[in-house]
Amino acid sequence: MVLDNLGSSLRSSLDKLQGKSRLDEDDVEEIIKEIQRSLLSADVEVTLVMDLSASIEERATGEEPPAGTSARDHVLRIVYEELVDLVGESTDLPLESQTILLAGLQGSGKTTSAAKMAWWFSKKGLRPAVIQTDTFRPGAYDQAEQMCERAEVSFYGDPDEDDPVRIARDGLEATEDADVHIVDTAGRHALEDDLIAEIEEIESTVDPDRSLLVLDAAIGQGAEEQAREFDDAIGIGGVVVTKLDGTAKGGGALTAVNETGSSIAFLGTGETVQDIERFEPNGFISRLLG
Ligand code: GDP
């Protein structure tokens, strides 16, 4: 079946349909309730959950299961298709020269993700470089340098320079030999005006092919505002969800994807440079419903 690791109450509601070839209204209602419960506890935004359950309900009651398909498999297929529709396929990332800008709040995992992505591109045969423009967070320079050393990828930063725009410009020049440039930026604890002004300036200087929003999987309803502000400022073309090795399910990413009209590019699954995966809808959706 398309979904594994479903939560136990959703699974038992679905299992009650075993052997049935048609669904009655009570069956659909029970399943919808379980799905809503799972998604809300995975931090998916309320209006998204409501829209999604309305589409699932409409299809589950309106569509006849194809011949030979049980009611259970039919409804499971609908749930999966509707969620894939919402979350989308992985962000398209051509394996060619490009500049990627990372944005996000402090602690979301930008620096770690920059090094991880550089490692990922290097394994694909490209020559990446990380440019560290975070002059705000003490330790960001050393952390990025050490992680890039571990990832065996080029690194540029300047601990004596406090103008991130200048570092970005100098960094692109200094790493001319690289083909993939990953520009890490400073975050703040909250969405402050100076953060947005700074990232707008960096964006216009480096002219990235895509800007990715880095989000902690534990982010709940705050995802919407962050996604909107960064999207308005620099245009978000994809999302990186970090810390999925923890207990959070990452439902905030769906909100961000929906808000920015983008998709998920990468998942962060640990603290070391290799702990990165390309997004794939099946595993992520199973986790949301789990
Ligand atoms: P930044 O302020 O956005 O640059 O965030 P950092 O890259 O410094 O990450 C903040 C903290 O989260 C650090 O302690 C990282 O080691 C940790 N971190 C980042 N990504 C992951 C992840 O995927 N899993 C886990 N467990 N920790 C992560």
Q: Specify the overall morphology.
A: elongated
What structural category characterises the helix and strand content? alpha/beta
* N-end to C-end Cα span: 15 Å
Order of helices and strands: HHHHEHEHEHEHEHEHEEH
Q: Work out the helicity level.
A: 40-55%
Beta content comes to 5-15%
Bound molecules: guanosine-5'-diphosphate
GO molecular function, one term: 7S RNA binding
Subcellular location: Cytoplasm
Binding site for GTP: 104-111, 184-188, 242-245
Catalytic activity: GTP + H2O = GDP + phosphate + H(+)
What does this structure look like?
It is a single chain. The protein has helices at 8-15, 25-41, 46-62, 71-87, 110-123, 140-151, 164-174, 193-206, 223-234, 252-260, 281-289, and strands spanning 98-103, 128-132, 154-156, 180-184, 210-216, 238-242, 264-268, 276-278. It is α/β, with parallel strands linked by helices. The chain has an eight-stranded mixed sheet, sandwiched between helices. Strand 7 (264-268) and strand 8 (276-278) form a beta hairpin. The protein is elongated, with a radius of gyration of 21 Å. The structure holds guanosine-5'-diphosphate. Residues 104, 106-112, 137, 143, 187, 242-243, 245-246, 268-271, 275 line the site of guanosine-5'-diphosphate.
